[in-house]
Design goal:
By secondary structure, the protein is of the alpha/beta class. The protein has 14 helices and 14 strands. The radius of gyration is 22 Å and the shape is globular.
């Protein structure tokens, strides 16, 4: 789908809604592929610092873009394992993760030219961040917002969950832009926030960018005409809130179904097999990431990628810790890159009982790995990165290996769909080495 929507003689106005750093990364990848640019002075107004700082304000402006001189993930090293059950873990920059030089968009001679640049490609893009409350996710989103600004795109930061009145302020403030938009890009079609916003827009073009492995399930559910339910919740009985929100969810599903009046694109690095009629699937090969970062310095050790399957109630915590310990021992892993939703308690325990250095990345792992240094082997459980890292690290010689989830690790409350879905994530990954589930030592 090319940037073609909008009235004749006017650039297409695109609003992108994101709620996670991975979603924002994939919006940047999509925009890079389609040649979108900053809306400049004619685009939707961004909230001023004064407005954002007011009492009860639902919108806050993002600080000016800046990449710290010494950026790096916060980490919990094995030397601090003795404090794993009391007090806060040491956190600080990891000097081994180098700064990446900032780059202005092509043709911009100065910072002022970024905001007022001429139309290139005939399309405008404004990224709207529907900020979550989780501190780690917010931190990564701030850093990704900086990168989006560096690329010349406008970022509008919404404190969408900052109190009981925040949703009303957010939706009210966005209503005009939603009605004027020619194209809506979204990172999470399962999000109730996004589904509600879809009821307002008149856009003819809808784009779903990757939100990890959930994209596979979204496309399959759309093809089968099912209600939109996250895979780890599927099989459970709908709660009161689900029933109350059902009309909005049904409306969103109808709007995400292609018709004579509406085009739908899915931009994904995931294997998509059940493609609904009329949906355009565009491959995400992480061209922007590879052009913007790296190549990385590669170490001789192995790195292990964490998962939030314990936090989502799919995998038992004790079984997971045992699997991490055995996997690290078998492959000589020294670092553990934590998922942004992993709990501090679990990470403290991992540091104390495995001796691994726990790293909490300040950017999505695809960017961290591309910047380096990164291990020659990256070990992972079934997750998005077994699909994305081989693309982001193409040509570097880094090997990605995925370890299956043993059925005995699943909790009693895990969705009946869980084992099949996780096996599918592993089995459909390309350019990865598949490991058998690790067994107790």
């Amino acid at each position: 789908m090319s940037p073609r929507a909008g009235q004749a003689g006017h650039p297409a106005r695109t609003l992108a809604f994101v709620e996670s750093p991975v979603q924002l990364l994939n919006v940047l990848e999509w925009a890079h592929l389609h040649g979108l640019h900053d809306p400049g002075p004619s685009g939707p107004a961004e909230p001023s610092g004064a407005a954002a700082g007011g009492a009860g304000a639902a919108t806050a402006s993002v600080p000016p873009p800046a990449l710290p001189t010494q950026p790096g993930p916060a980490h919990i090293g094995p030397a601090h394992a003795g404090h794993a059950h009391g007090g806060s873990a040491h956190a600080g920059p990891v000097p081994a993760v180098p700064a990446q030089g900032r780059r202005l968009p092509a043709g911009a001679a100065a910072a002022g030219a970024v905001a007022g640049g001429t139309a290139a490609g005939g399309a405008e893009l404004t990224v709207v961040v529907l900020s979550p409350t989780d501190p780690m996710t917010r931190g990564q989103l701030r850093r990704m917002a900086d990168l989006a600004r560096d690329e010349g795109y406008r970022v509008r930061w919404e404190e969408a969950r900052g109190g009981t009145t925040a949703p009303f302020h957010t939706i009210g403030g966005l209503a005009g832009s939603l009605r004027r938009a020619d194209r809506i890009v979204m990172g999470d079609p399962f999000s109730r926030y996004v589904q509600l916003l879809l009821t307002i827009t008149r856009a003819r073009d809808l784009v779903v960018v990757d939100d990890g492995t959930a994209t596979m399930e979204f496309v399959a559910q759309l093809a089968r005409g099912e209600r939109l339910v996250r895979w780890h919740r599927k099989g459970g009985r709908p709660g009161a809130r689900d029933l109350l929100f059902a009309p909005v969810s049904s409306s969103a599903r109808r709007r995400l179904t292609p018709s004579d009046r509406r085009r739908v694109e899915v931009f994904s690095s995931m294997p998509v097999t059940e493609i609904p009629d009329g949906v355009t699937v565009t491959a995400n090969d992480f061209a922007w990431t590879r052009a913007r970062f790296g190549p990385p310095r590669i170490t001789q050790s192995a790195d292990l990628v964490g998962t939030s399957l314990v936090e989502t109630g799919v995998v038992d915590g004790d079984r997971y810790l045992e699997a991490v310990r055995n996997l690290a021992k078998a492959h000589g892993a020294t670092r553990y890159f934590a998922h942004r939703r992993e709990s501090a308690e679990k990470l403290h325990r991992l540091a104390a009982e495995t001796g691994l250095e726990i790293v909490r990345p300040d950017l999505p792992l695809e960017l961290i790995a591309r910047r380096g240094p990164i291990g020659r082997t990256i070990l992972s459980f079934p997750s998005t990165v077994v699909h994305t890292l081989p693309l982001a690290l193409a040509g570097t010689g880094v090997r990605v290996a995925v370890c299956d989830i043993d059925p005995t690790w699943l909790t009693d409350t895990a969705s009946p769909r869980a084992q099949g879905f996780l096996s599918g994530v592993t089995g459909t990954a390309r350019d990865v080495h598949r490991l058998a589930a690790v067994s107790p030592a």
